[in-house]
């Protein structure tokens, strides 16, 4: 009986630890999904939008919600500038 409890505890701990790791890591696939949403309405510049959004997401670990605006949700994303001093992130 005690062995069963120990095994169950170990399995639950392993599942919780792996779930935490997935949620805390900011990998490119997480950025890609968020940037797909962010750039979904960018017609002509869709590829450029995705490129810039993914760069910003990798640097800031966040992407604002929606397809436009809401940049206050992610100050780092909001404050990144391109070489012309304009907002880099879509």
TrEMBL record:
Instruction: Name the InterPro entries on file.
Output: GASA
Protein name listed in UniProt: Gibberellin regulated protein
**High-level lineage:** Eukaryota, Viridiplantae, Streptophyta, Embryophyta, Tracheophyta
> Which top-rank group of organisms is this from?
Eukaryota
Q: Which N-terminal stretch is annotated as signal sequence?
A: 1-26
PANTHER family membership: EXTENSIN, PROLINE-RICH PROTEIN, GIBBERELLIN-REGULATED FAMILY PROTEIN-RELATED
Q: Give the source species.
A: Arabidopsis thaliana x Arabidopsis arenosa
Q: State whether keyword Oxidoreductase applies.
A: no
Q: What Pfam families does this protein's entry cite?
A: GASA
One of the protein's GO biological processes? gibberellic acid mediated signaling pathway
The record's keywords, sorted A to Z, are: Gibberellin signaling pathway, Signal
Family classification:
Belongs to the GASA family.
């Amino acid at each position: 009986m005690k062995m069963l409890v120990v095994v169950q505890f170990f399995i639950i701990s392993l599942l919780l630890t792996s779930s935490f790791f997935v949620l805390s890591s900011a990998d490119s696939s997480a950025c890609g999904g968020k940037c797909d949403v962010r750039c979904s309405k960018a017609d002509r510049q869709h590829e450029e939008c995705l490129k810039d959004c993914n760069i910003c997401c990798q640097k800031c670990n966040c992407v604002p919600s929606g397809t436009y605006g809401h940049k206050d949700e992610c100050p780092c994303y909001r404050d990144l500038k391109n070489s012309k001093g304009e907002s880099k992130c879509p």
